[in-house]
Amino acid sequence: MDHIAAVEEQMVTERLRRKLNEVNLAAQSQLSPIQDHINFTLQQAYFKCAYECFDRRRKQEEISNCVENCSVPVVNAQHQFENEMSKFQERLNRSLMVCQDKFEAAKLQQAKTDAMTNLESCVNQSIEENINSLPHFVQRMKATFSISD
Asked: Under a CB-based contact definition with an 8 Å cutoff, are residues 115 and 107 in contact?
């Protein structure tokens, strides 16, 4: 019986790993237009702006200040994107921790296979809820950066 339980636990663990990979792929896919905007559109604007800063009539300090000012939009956008991603990851982690807590409590009260089934169900629901929140998150970020669809 222990061998069967171990195999079942291994199967559930693999399904959970695939589910976590699913949320990562969904996030990467849906967030790629925002990353492209930051990495290409804003970076391109930065380099064009910085190029214009180099003028022989300017002092080195003026050039440095100009280049630094050019970097502000891309640095701010990257910072804001990272903050939002951090919040998303935090929400996902908290919901998965709730599942883990429920699993630990269930292990004490019932058979381990039932606890594993409940864990899998909880994780699936948590991940689906987070994946479903991605479009709203993406739209909010697109609005913040004035990215049209």
From this structure: yes
Res 1: pLDDT: 47
Q: Residues near 23 by Cβ (< 8 Å), separated by ≥ 6?
A: 92, 127, 130, 131
Query: What is the pTM (predicted TM-score) of this model?
Result: 0.79
Contacting residues for 91 by C-beta, under 8 A, at least 6 apart: 130, 133
Q: Is the pLDDT of residue 112 over 70?
A: no
